[in-house]
Amino acid sequence: MKVDVVLGLQWGDEGKGKVVDVLTPDYQVIARFQGGPNAGHSLHFADKVHVLRSIPSGIFRDNAINIIGNGVVLDPVMFAQEIDELEKLGVDVTAKIRVAKKAHLILPTHRMLDAASEAAKGKAKIGSTLKGIGPTYMDKTGRNGLRVGDILSPSFMERYERLKQKHVAMLAQFDFEYDITEYEAQWFQGVETLRRFTIIEGEHEVNRLLNEGKGILAEGAQGSLLDVDYGTYPFVTSSNTVCAGACIGLGVAPNRIGEVYGIFKAYCTRVGSGPFPTELFDQTGKDLQRIGHEFGAVTGRERRCGWLDMVALKYTTMINGVTQLIMMKSDVLNTFPTIKVAVAYEIGGRRVTEFPYETNEEITPIYREFEGWNCDINKIRRYEDFPQQFKTYVEFIEQETGVPVKIISVGPDREETIVR
């Protein structure tokens, strides 16, 4: 058996939660391999919206095992809140969720360090969600981190206090007032919630399940253009969001990766600061935001909107080894008479078709225009029934990337999904 991987190909918010929920009937195990509670995966079904932050998107599927992998950073407060919400819905969370010992814990002081550091940057802010993600990964790479497995140790409180005091000393360098008393109390309550769950040797468990013939779907958070190595640095997250991150975050060998599902919107969005070559500042951009309900699932922040960027999409398809493309929010473009796609950039008077190292310099997108389909495609359930203009758009993407578009979403609900 192989581990199949589903991940975003843009700056996050591509609709990974819905896709995982749609794909999960074919898998017995869903595993998150990186990221933290800054990622919100929205699932729409039974006329309700469910937002998951740290818990894998297979939690609503019967008999599915949901693993929070080694590469994830976990905030016990937010984890406990999420568990409480799921239990109110009648979900048997303790039977379905397993947490890797090597996943790192987000401390209350990590959140304070995040906020203090971002405030100190002034106009150079990177757009952090202030959930403590960056400082937690810094402690991980600095070999100072506190891990989920540590909550089982008799010396847990000693380790916690040692790391907390290190953070207090660092915070003294900032002109920043804070009080973690209330949040710290909630944090320790969250740790008690965490103790209720099966805490596993993640890499051994995943490989054992593979060897038993279980189908495993690895779920990424954020998007490939936010990868710490290959994204639009420094406006990126603190982990590897690309396919290779699944190997590191779950402890599986590269030769055990199977299908790679790459998810993208039919247009582009981005939350927070950072380069966005096809961003629209006109009424079209506002219309995309309004029709697409482009507001963060966790933060509520407005998403910047623009046309599809083929230069970036070909780049992320390449570095992830995508085998199947999944196009989301196709219906948002229903009413646009003309739809544009950036097929190249103009940088310093040169035409560039490869995603560049320096994305902060002046980039002018070079567009190809497509005739819009100008009709409601939400009720269509077969590819053959789409208008020709829509099929032309899809087939252009396939030609440019060299990868088939296997799934098309025409609305937020499970049923509004066409599998080709």
Biggest sheet overview:
10 strands, mixed
Strand proportion: 15-25%
Number of strands: 20
Distance between the termini: 23 Å
Helical residue percent band: 25-40%
Structural class: alpha/beta
- Mean pLDDT level: 92
- The gyration radius over C-alpha positions equals 21 Å
Count of DSSP helices? 12
Q: Tell me, what's the shape?
A: globular
Low-confidence stretches: none
The largest sheet has its strands arranged as 9-7-5-2-10-1-11-15-19-20
Binding site for substrate: 297-303
Enzyme class: ligase
Pathway: Purine metabolism; AMP biosynthesis via de novo pathway; AMP from IMP: step 1/2
Binding site for IMP: 13-16, 38-41, 129, 143, 222, 237, 301
Structural summary, described in words:
- The chain has 420 residues and is of the alpha/beta class.
- Helices cover 31% and strands 21% of the residues.
- The protein has a ten-stranded mixed sheet, with helices on both faces. Strands 14, 16, 17 and 18 form a four-stranded mixed sheet that branches.
- The radius of gyration is 21 Å and the shape is globular.
- The protein starts with a strand and ends with a strand.
- GTP binds at residues 12-18, 40-42, 303, 329-331, 409-411.
